[in-house]
Amino acid sequence: MDIHAYPTDATTPVDPTEAHRIAERHLTNGDYADRGITYQLAEFDTCFVAVATFPRSPHVDPDSPPVIVGGSVCVIDKPTGAVSYWPTYPADLVADQYATALRDGTLVIEDDWPEDDESPSSA
To answer: Which of 26, 28, 67, 103 is most solvent-facing, going by the fewest CB within 10 Å?
Structure first.
């Protein structure tokens, strides 16, 4: 199955600072931003995996793990800055599957983002 990724205005190759900028610009908008949802980034050889998290309640232990937003895992491709959407799997598993898609040639970087009435393809 092909994995579809969507272009960004990234400065490439993407470094951690640029990955955070992409997440802010392309992933944390609309309802997510209004609810305080942010993305935690994990860096891997070929990509950054961005996992959406809810803000912690002030009454929660600050060392407790973040609460993951279901269905909100994205990959930011290091060479191109393109963004793809993934199921809510652990970041290391998503990075492994992404590396496999790159190796197998099943990653398709689209020319444009889908129209509003279309939804991005998931893996």
So the answer is: 103
